[in-house]
Amino acid sequence: MKKNYKVLSVFIFLASFSTVTHATENVLITSDNFALKTDYFKPNIASDRAVLMLHQCNYNRSMYTKIGEQLAQLGIHALSLDFRGFGESVNHQYDIEKVRSQPDDTRRSAWLTLSQNWPDDVALAYNYLKNKIGNHGRIAIIGASCGGTQAVNLAQSTPMSAIVFFSSAQNETNIARYKTDLANVPTLIIAAEQDGRTYSSAKTLFDSAMHINSKLISYKGSEHGYPLLTKDPNLAQLMVSWLNQQL
Q: Which of 27, 78, 85, 196 could anchor a disulfide with 96, C-beta 3.0 to 4.6 Å?
């Protein structure tokens, strides 16, 4: 079986970047007239490759600044967005701080009201990138923590060339969806060993992955998502290198 050829590995990517490609701030308007703030990293060459970057739910789109810059320098379009209710994608109706301040008996329903819009919002961001690279282009997606569920949602409904699960715990339903529909997509899985459910589901996803280029990068400790980028200064380049190879 293909999975017998999978390799658990941490690889080194050494590259020098002569120029820095800074983000352009964009606003995407949804069908219900909500303003989604995004950062778009445009390569300096014509390109049919792109990466959509979804943040974790205790950060915002700025967690991908370095990764977006490095992708663009390699000729890859990159887009990060603030989920509805996070970062600069907030209004009087959608604001994660208001959700978090609610009592326990109403917080869950408020969270569902907020997050139920995310699949459509993410699809809008995907289509923005698709318009940049054309119908025959290749798109990958990074989902950090809660962003991993949105990555699964999108990858099930649209062609995806690669997936990165970054400290993203997946429930049994999502793992089953991955096994059924996405196991043959190159998948990079990143997790810290003491990060509870995140690490156990990472191992399950990796065991389910069928593509020869699927990899698991594990760390000692309990850092979750963005702090791993600080802990390991090479991690951003590792992610960029792997994505560049798949695209």
A: 85
